[in-house]
Design brief:
mainly alpha; 189 residues; 5 helices; Ferritin
Length: 189
């Protein structure tokens, strides 16, 4: 699957006033948004159709917000004179995601959101050390990071809601009626 959200920024130079490092950071954030695991939760996805309304609505909103943030990053790159081509592709390690249930996908989404927040934090820190950065760039990145943190909280609640309840406490201990070091089931004795 290929989606052109913007135009090429890699191997291109930004206007003289904007450091190339800013363009690279924004392009990296755009690529991560376009290639986010959230693309598996898009409208019509089996994950959304099987989810309860309490989980489906926030996930739909996150997908929409992810697409909006990608568009805002692309627009910012273009305003800096650095068009970018970003392709959405399914990596080989993501092939199995189409077959997972929502209870297995939600922790992946939580991990992805945490990684995205770290990327934004690193970008904000890096941009803060660069000269000639347009004032709207750090403001946009801080706003995006705040949204991502709010979304992370909602995802963590959703993941907890669909996670199986532990009935026996520690899952590494044998179930009642089973031998202590055996998976063979109840002992005959």
């Amino acid at each position: 699957m290929t989606t052109a959200i913007a135009h090429t920024a890699r191997n291109m130079t930004a206007p003289a006033a904007t450091p190339v490092a800013v363009v690279d950071l924004l392009t990296s954030l755009l690529e991560s948004a376009v290639n986010s695991v959230f693309r598996f939760v898009a409208e019509g996805s089996p994950y959304l159709s099987r989810a309860s309304a309490e989980i489906r609505r926030p996930l739909q909103e996150m997908v929409i917000a992810n697409n909006r943030r990608a568009s805002e990053l692309a627009a910012t790159l273009e305003s800096l004179g650095a068009p970018a081509v970003v392709r959405a592709e399914i990596r080989s390690d993501e092939q199995y995601l189409a077959y997972l249930s929502l209870k297995f996908l939600l922790p992946k989404l939580v991990d992805e959101k945490k990684l995205c927040i770290r990327r934004y934090a690193n970008a904000i820190e890096s941009i803060g050390r660069l000269p000639q950065v347009p004032a709207d760039v750090p403001a946009l990145l801080r706003a995006h990071r705040a949204e991502l943190e709010t979304e992370l909280t909602a995802l963590e609640h959703a993941a907890a809601a669909v996670a199986p309840a532990k009935k026996n406490g520690d899952p590494s201990k044998p179930a009642a009626g089973t031998a202590k070091n055996s998976d063979a089931g109840p002992s005959a004795g």
